[in-house]
Specification:
This protein is mostly helical. The chain has a domain at about 5-225: Hypothetical protein af1432 (Orthogonal Bundle), CATH 1.10.3210.10. The protein has helices at about 15-25, 30-40, 50-55, 60-75, 85-90, 95-100, 105-110, 115-140, 145-155, 160-165, 170-180, 185-195, 200-210, 215-220, 230-240, 250-265, 265-275. α2 (about 30-40) runs antiparallel to α3 (about 50-55). It is globular, with a radius of gyration of 21 Å.
C-alpha cells in the first residue's frame, strides 16, 4: 500500500518484517461493503460523495485503504492533511473512487478456508463499529468541531488487530484463547509473548508507514489520553471491548464513571443514551446444576472432539450480537 521506509521500533526486532508484510499486502474488505459499492456503481448518476462516505465508514478495512491511498494522492496534488473520509472522497471524485477500488478482494473469500478466523475477525470489526458509533455520539454531544475525525479514529483504533486476524489467523486465535482462558492477563503482554511485540507498536508503525495525518495518529494513541478528544476515542474503544459479552464486565463501572466525567452527565442520563436499564448491568444468577443426562444408547455416536484452539463460542450467559447474523456477518 505504501513504502516501508519507516523505522521499526528497535526494541522489537520482529516488527519490521510484519510492517513490511502488512504494508505490501492487498487488504481485503467486507463482502457486504463490496456489494454496497457494486450497487452504488450501478447507480452512479444518483450517487454522491456522501453516499460513498457512509459505505466506507462501516468498514475499517476499506477506511484504512482509502486513507492510505489518499495520502499518496495528496502528496502529488496538495499539502493539506486529509483527516476524514468525506474529504478524501471529495478529493478523489466519485468515478475515480470506483475505478480505484474496483473488484476488491473480500474478507470472506480470503478466509473462506478458516471459518473460525472469519468469525473472529468479524467480531472484532463489529466491536470497532460500536466503538465508532459511541465516539461519534459523544463527540457530537461535546460539540466537537469535526465529529468524523473522532469516529474514524475509534473505527481504526484496533486496525492492527483486524489485520492480524486477516493475515495471521493462527496467532490471532492463540492470543484470543490465552486471554479468554485467563481474564487477569494483559493483552499487550500476551501479544508480546506470541508475536514478539504488542500490537499497539505495529499499529503506530503502520500509521507512519502509510503517512496517515499526525492528527489521526494522535487520536488513536492512548498515551495522549490527557487530551479530551483522545479520551473520547479511548473510552469508546474500551466500552465496546468490555461490553462484547454483555454489560456485566467488571471494568464497565469504571468506564461509565469516566464517560460521565467526559460528558458531564449523571449515571441515569448515560444509561438512557446507551439504551440500557439498571437490570441489564446485573450479572445473571447462576442456575443450580441440572441432573445428569441419561447415557447415550449403544448405537449412538458421541463426538469428543474439542473446538479448535481459539474458536469463539457462546458459553452460558454469553451474548452474541444479532448483527452477527445480519448486516455485518454475511458469512458463506
Amino acid at each position: 500500500m505504501s513504502d516501508t521506509n519507516t523505522t521499526a521500533n528497535a526494541s522489537h526486532p520482529y516488527l519490521e518484517g510484519w510492517l513490511k508484510f502488512f504494508s505490501e499486502a492487498e487488504i481485503p474488505i467486507l463482502r457486504k461493503t463490496a456489494r454496497s459499492l457494486d450497487e452504488a456503481r450501478a447507480n452512479i448518476d444518483q450517487i454522491t460523495g456522501r453516499h460513498i462516505t457512509e459505505i466506507v465508514l462501516h468498514d475499517p478495512l476499506l477506511a484504512i485503504r482509502v486513507l492510505a491511498y489518499i495520502q499518496e494522492f495528496r502528496s502529488r496534488h496538495l499539502h493539506n492533511d486529509i483527516t476524514n473520509i468525506a474529504s478524501a472522497v471529495m478529493m478523489l471524485g466519485v468515478e475515480p473512487f470506483f475505478r480505484k477500488f474496483e473488484n476488491p478482494l473480500t474478507l470472506e473469500d480470503k478466509l473462506s478456508g478458516n471459518p473460525h478466523a472469519l468469525l473472529g475477525v468479524l467480531q472484532v470489526i463489529l466491536r470497532t463499529q460500536r466503538a465508532s458509533r459511541h465516539a461519534h455520539h459523544w463527540a457530537f454531544a461535546r460539540y466537537d468541531l469535526n465529529v468524523e475525525e473522532v469516529a474514524l479514529a475509534a473505527l481504526l483504533h484496533d486496525i492492527a488487530e483486524v489485520l492480524l486476524w486477516c493475515f495471521a489467523p493462527e496467532q490471532a486465535m492463540e492470543i484470543h484463547a490465552k486471554l479468554h482462558a485467563d481474564r487477569s492477563l494483559r493483552s499487550a503482554s500476551v501479544q508480546e509473548e506470541i508475536l514478539g511485540f504488542p500490537l499497539v507498536d505495529l499499529q503506530l508503525a503502520l500509521c507512519h508507514a502509510w503517512h496517515l495525518p499526525e492528527l489521526l495518529i494522535t487520536l488513536m494513541d492512548d498515551s495522549n489520553a490527557y487530551l479530551p478528544r483522545v479520551q473520547n476515542v479511548k473510552l469508546a474503544v474500551n466500552l465496546a471491548r468490555h461490553s462484547v459479552e454483555g454489560w456485566t464486565d467488571a471494568a464497565i463501572p469504571d468506564d461509565f464513571a469516566a464517560i460521565q466525567r467526559l460528558l458531564h452527565i449523571d449515571h441515569e442520563t448515560l444509561l438512557a443514551r446507551l439504551h440500557l436499564t439498571p437490570e441489564m448491568l446485573v450479572p445473571p444468577v447462576a442456575e443450580p446444576p441440572s441432573a445428569a443426562p441419561p447415557p447415550p444408547a449403544a448405537n449412538t455416536e458421541v463426538s469428543l472432539e474439542a473446538p479448535p484452539v481459539g474458536m469463539i463460542v457462546a458459553g452460558p450467559g454469553q451474548i452474541l450480537d444479532d448483527d452477527l447474523d445480519g448486516a455485518l456477518l454475511d458469512m458463506p
